[in-house]
Write a structure and sequence with these properties.
This protein is α/β, with parallel strands linked by helices and about 220 residues long. Helix content is about 30%, strand content about 15%. A seven-stranded mixed β-sheet has the order 3-2-1-4-5-7-6, with helices on both faces. Strand 4, helix 4 and strand 5 form a beta-alpha-beta unit. Helix 2 packs across helix 3 and helix 4 runs parallel beside helix 5. The chain is globular, with a radius of gyration of 18 Å. The chain starts with 12 loop residues before the first helix and ends in a 9-residue tail after the last strand.
Length: about 220
């Protein structure tokens, strides 16, 4: 074994610069502060790229919130699986009807525990390992955004969705997952194009298993 540093992997100057820019933004941009004046603002908890976190734009979060409110119905229950942006928009009280539904956020990132009883710890690697008070088929609609674009991740998240949902599913993931998503959840791709605060390299789409305005908007 050599004491030389020749075999120690190093990051390129370009990669280091990109990482520094990211850290600078999360440290100085009010939108990424962990203590904003509005705890439910989209971006109140900053993105962590190490956990594959990419928040929706405010417009997209609003449109998805409107969709799940409409489909949940009066007194409906909404589960946001790895989709905290939509949960936050629902809790802001700025979307019509948000006061007539309830919502929870299932997340691996324990920073979201600040939302109290609405937070349910969730690890997609253990798709059915949920809190004891989470009953099967207890949500009128489940909105899920699997953190990784892999067959394994989507397959496991699909198990969670099926456990939680009474029937309606709104899935947000890469377009490349279309066939697998249809096989697992019988969902169809929508014409609606969701946007993120940061541009993603993969085409991102929404999928539903019910008649939806998102299919043709």
């Amino acid at each position: 074994m050599s004491d030389s540093d020749d075999d120690v992997p190093t990051l390129s100057a370009h990669t280091l610069a990109a990482l520094q820019e990211f850290y600078n933004e999360t440290r100085t941009d009010p939108a990424h502060s962990t203590t904003p004046s509005d705890q439910f603002a989209v971006g109140a908890v900053g993105e962590d790229w190490r956990m594959s976190q990419f928040w929706y734009s405010d417009e997209t979060a609003t449109q998805l919130a409107e969709e799940v409110i409409r489909e949940a119905g009066e007194g409906g229950r909404i589960a946001c699986v790895s989709a905290p942006s939509v949960y936050q928009k629902l809790k802001q009280g700025v979307v019509d009807g948000s006061d007539r539904v309830s919502a929870v956020v299932l997340e691996y990132d324990r920073r979201f525990a600040t939302y109290g009883d609405d937070f349910i710890f969730y690890d997609y690697n253990e798709p059915l390992s949920l809190a004891a008070n989470v009953a099967p088929q207890s949500f009128d609609i489940v909105l899920a955004d699997p953190p990784y674009l892999s067959e394994e991740c989507l397959s496991k998240v699909a198990k969670t969705i099926k456990y939680l949902s009474k029937g309606k599913v709104l899935l947000c993931t890469g377009a490349i997952q279309e066939n697998l998503a249809e096989d697992l959840l019988d969902v169809k791709m929508c014409s609606f194009l969701p946007k993120h605060n940061r541009n993603l390299s993969n085409e991102f789409r929404c999928f539903v298993n019910y008649p939806s305005r998102l299919l043709s908007c």
